[in-house]
Design goal:
Elements: H1 3-8, H2 22-50, H3 61-71
Length: 74
């Protein structure tokens, strides 16, 4: 190779494998956990604060079945 061919040729790129960052992996677990906590917090806020009901009945299945029946009654 001549000097001009060496200057005009592009350097070879080596393939570099990217590692998954710790934040990217943690985000996969953190987002669903935060969504579940937001759902639980919204249920408590809506039922206890706005509805002025007992906090003990927030997580009972019969409570939410009754709410469902009220909303979708035909």
């Amino acid at each position: 190779m001549t000097d001009t061919q060496k200057q005009n040729s592009k350097p070879e790129k080596k393939e570099v494998k990217k590692k998954k960052s710790g934040w990217r992996i943690a985000r996969g677990f953190l987002i669903p956990v935060l969504l579940v906590l937001a759902l639980a917090g919204g249920m408590v806020a809506g039922y206890v604060v706005l509805g002025k009901q007992d906090i003990g009945s927030v997580f009972q299945w019969s409570t939410w079945k009754h709410v469902y029946d009220l909303v979708f009654a035909s």
